[in-house]
From TrEMBL:
<keyword id="KW-0963">Cytoplasm</keyword>
<dbReference type="GO" id="GO:0004360">
    <property type="term" value="F:glutamine-fructose-6-phosphate transaminase (isomerizing) activity"/>
</dbReference>
<dbReference type="GO" id="GO:0006002">
    <property type="term" value="P:fructose 6-phosphate metabolic process"/>
</dbReference>
<dbReference type="GO" id="GO:0005829">
    <property type="term" value="C:cytosol"/>
</dbReference>
<keyword id="KW-0315">Glutamine amidotransferase</keyword>
<comment type="subunit">
    <text>Homodimer.</text>
</comment>
<keyword id="KW-0808">Transferase</keyword>
<keyword id="KW-0032">Aminotransferase</keyword>
<feature type="domain" description="SIS">
    <location>
        <begin position="214"/>
        <end position="355"/>
    </location>
</feature>
<dbReference type="GO" id="GO:0006047">
    <property type="term" value="P:UDP-N-acetylglucosamine metabolic process"/>
</dbReference>
<feature type="active site" description="For Fru-6P isomerization activity">
    <location>
        <position position="360"/>
    </location>
</feature>
<dbReference type="GO" id="GO:0005975">
    <property type="term" value="P:carbohydrate metabolic process"/>
</dbReference>
<dbReference type="GO" id="GO:0046349">
    <property type="term" value="P:amino sugar biosynthetic process"/>
</dbReference>
<protein>
    <recommendedName>
        <fullName>Glutamine--fructose-6-phosphate aminotransferase [isomerizing]</fullName>
        <ecNumber>2.6.1.16</ecNumber>
    </recommendedName>
</protein>
<keyword id="KW-0677">Repeat</keyword>
<dbReference type="GO" id="GO:0097367">
    <property type="term" value="F:carbohydrate derivative binding"/>
</dbReference>
<comment type="function">
    <text>Catalyzes the first step in hexosamine metabolism, converting fructose-6P into glucosamine-6P using glutamine as a nitrogen source.</text>
</comment>
Length: 365
């Protein structure tokens, strides 16, 4: 069932173009509005009234929630907070009449997320779930939901669920935008943009060999730092989580500008720094961060936008990803990070599909 791939994780990384197509099928067909999200059709009135959104999730799903926060704020102009499910429940959270709680979970069985969701419901919140596993506890108990429709994810390290959750947030943000404004001149373009993402992911997957060679150069390191800004800050966190959970290399993700507030002290020739440096509003600032790392002898792997030659002379390695609107770049920038973690872990002889001490769904609190 691994379809010729050595591991489920690798198979699932490669399934991402198809998975996103499955997620979008019937929902943004023909590039036309409205966005059809069947699981929300009975609560459009509630969605119109929402004034604040609280996202609850754990691990990779929490990272997808952070991207969702940026998307919902940017596209739908609704204030969003993202909470670790485990923290949310013990904080006596503030839920008002117009607060929507969104529970994000691939498995739909994560105990912390389920408990947080029940707490939210007890406080009178409406809960919308984004789940992959159909009929899972979280999906069943939610008031409304969006299923990912991407097939089972077996590898403990979540990959295709992350990109699908991010894409689901994007569709949800467009859906809210259209509910509120009926039409919006930007929407057709935004739909075209997401429709072109699967093909762009495939282009990155076709560069796997390049990434494998890079993994070979870094596989014996003991630490790594991941930096990104804006939409790519959560991707830095996700890249670091992928590396640590399957290769057991200590890795940390940071918003790039935070480096100077502490982590810069760690940089020397043994510290690889993976920088997401795509061409967007903060590109110049990110180039400065790269220079700061280089001047302290750190090694830099840059994830950059195709056609960016300037970065070649600055970073030790450059992985190019196709251009896309900033809001959608996480769907692309995460792909080389998944492949890098995978190949480093395989080269270190780790069991990537079943890393030590971890289970696919964490059903204990
Ligand atoms: O099934 P869920 O999305 O609720 O799982 C949440 C986390 O346990 C999960 O994302 C975990 O962090 C993964 N192992 C990350 O790759």
């Amino acid at each position: 069932e691994k379809s010729g791939f050595q591991h489920f994780m690798l198979k699932e990384i490669h399934e991402q173009p198809q998975a996103l197509q499955n997620l979008m099928r019937g929902r943004v067909d023909g590039g036309k509005a409205p966005i059809k999200l069947g699981g929300l059709s009975h609560c459009e009135k509630d969605l119109l009234a929402v004034k604040r959104i609280v996202v609850i999730a754990c691990g990779t799903s929490w990272h997808a929630g952070l991207v969702g926060e940026y998307m919902l704020e940017e596209l739908a102009r609704i204030p969003v907070e993202v909470e670790y499910a485990s923290e949310f429940r013990y904080r006596n959270p503030i839920i008002e009449k117009d607060t929507l709680v969104m529970a994000i979970s691939q498995s739909g069985e994560t105990a912390d997320t389920l408990a947080a969701m029940r707490e939210a419901k007890n406080k009178g919140a409406k809960v919308l779930a984004i789940c992959n596993v159909v009929g899972s506890s979280i999906a069943r108990e939610a008031d409304a939901g969006i299923y990912l429709h991407i097939g089972p994810e077996i590898g403990v390290a979540s990959t295709k669920a992350f990109t699908a959750q991010v894409a689901a947030f994007y569709l949800f943000a467009l859906h809210i935008l259209l509910l509120r404004h009926k039409t919006d001149p930007k929407v057709p373009e935004m739909i075209t943009a997401i429709n072109s993402i699967p093909g762009k992911i495939q282009k990155i997957l076709d560069r796997e060999e390049e990434i494998r060679e890079m993994a070979d150069a870094y596989k014996d390191k003991n630490h790594a730092l991941y930096l990104g800004r804006g939409f790519n800050y959560p991707v830095a966190l996700e890249g670091a989580l992928k590396l640590k959970e399957i290769s057991y290399i200590h890795a940390q993700g940071y918003p790039a500008a935070e480096m100077k507030h502490g982590p810069i002290a760690l940089i020397d020739e043994n510290m690889p720094v993976i920088v997401i440096a795509t061409k967007d509003a903060t590109y110049g600032k990110i180039l400065n961060n790269i220079e700061e790392v280089k001047s302290r002898k750190g090694r830099v792997i840059a994830i950059a936008t195709e056609g960016d030659e300037q970065i070649q002379g600055k970073a030790d390695h450059v992985v190019y990803i196709p251009d896309a609107p900033a809001v959608l770049t996480p769907l692309l920038s995460v792909i080389p990070l998944q492949l890098l973690a995978y190949h480093m872990a395989v080269m270190r002889g780790c069991n990537v599909d079943k890393p030590r001490n971890l289970a696919k769904s964490v059903t204990v609190e």
